[in-house]
Specification:
By secondary structure, this protein is an alpha/beta fold. The protein is elongated. Strand 13 and strand 14 form a beta hairpin.
Amino acid sequence: MVVLVGVQSAGPEPVGFVLGTEDATPLDFWVAVQPGSYLQLDDVVALERVLPSGEVVGIFGVVSQVRARHEGARFDSDVFLIRSGVLPAEVVEAANITSTRFEPELFVPPIPGSPVRKAEGAEREQALYFDGMERRLPIGLSRDGQPVFANFDFMDGTRGAHVNISGISGVATKTSYACFLLYSLFRSKLMGGAGLNAKALIFNVKSEDLLFLDKPNLRLDVQRRARYESLGLPAGPFPSVEFWAPPRRNVPSAIPDVHGRTEGVTAFFWTLADFCSSDLLPFLFADAEDERAQYPIVLHNVMAKLRQGKAGTDGAVIIEGETCRTFRELVDLIAGRVDDDTTDWGGRAVTPGTRNAFIRRLEGAVRHIGHLIRADIPGATDHAIRFQQQVTVVDIHNLNDRAQRFVVGVILRQVLDTKERQGRPDPLQFVVLDELNKYAPREGSSPIKEILLDIAERGRSLGISLIGAEQTASEVERRIVANSSLRVVGRLDSAEAGREEYGFLPVSTRQRATILKPGTMVVSQPEIPVPLVIEFPFPAWATRNDEAGPAPGSVPLDPFDGLVEEPSQ
């Protein structure tokens, strides 16, 4: 007679029993699945073990692997004999369980034969540490449609900050998930009144997908809407958004350089006076990590001279008696002064070769950045990014790579300087930046990288949380990734998945990451010892023009309005 050792808990019927033919450890163990039942990846299970003292230890875990095999077969060809009924054999399914929690914390292995059940309700929350999260942020749904949460303490700076998202471009839906996190944060109830004051800055680096966040998605059907209800979220667009885009080049007016959206977008640029007084010159050299060290003396000398300039009308700058209204005029003035040996703009001890290298790079910026630094348009203050709405989208996808770096660097420093002047973390400021490997590469240095490192290391105390995304985490500065409390992975390239930066993923999860579908992510957070696979809802906001519906609360147009009825004959 076989005796099953263990404790049968009142509740759901056991889905299986702990195997005795495989080692059972406090870290992981195997469960034989009962006939007529099944376990799939990511299922949450629970069981108990009774100690000799009579104390009961609750053991919880997550299914990390499932297998099925023929018992009684010795050779691969036996499957044909078993199939035809010649050779007797049984099909047995078993699931590998990775332990997540012990209550109380006595790390003992489960006893073979112990009944195992699926964890539901309060048991599931206990297994995944949701029961201890005072501020739970919905971050997606499990495979069985149950809500998955993150502890907001690790996003707002209370115990940590920052989110890092990795995945293949166009497949991993990194930006879509970053937007969903913001939507969940702003529309959930966890932040209370603080949620109304929190701000988000999003850099739009690919097409015009993020220029419709304030429009409802016409493709959001009843089934997709129900997924938001499961998370306790309303289904709709972002309620408070402002959109900024660079002006069109070679146009003597501030017309936004966008095509899919014709209203609600404001052109942004900086005046020459702002450029000189705010020391924005180094951001023109943000892509010159290796060369920048050759002319720091020239760069700092020129910055000091520009700082002495006086502001003119409409943002013009007056330097040594000369008035500059275009970036071209300012560059010509700087180049003339630096190249003149009789001035101290370039530095007395600097060689002509170093000065010429500085001038060449400065001249190269005119074509790509000239329309972003100007004083030829009245009312320039109306084109300064002000962060007046809850979400600010800055579109840079039409800009040259060098211009993108300039815009990102200048705006990030503006955010950092503003928070430092405030001297307090409230209101929270979230920054969404894709292509992080371009702005904070592992090798080299640049002004933008220094700012991003400052945000990663001090942002928690300042109230700035970076939501960074990249295709390859292995190419991003280690300290930025290491300071991210939430690590999110979408679809990965197989070579990238094998790198040490993804060591927080179990082997089986790394393999799964190479076949994840869009909308499926793996989330790792400090309180939960295993990464969780989640799915996030289809965007409730439009991601392109043909998806955009009318703004909430707007009155639909009468298609017959304006038509004159013809008199009857």
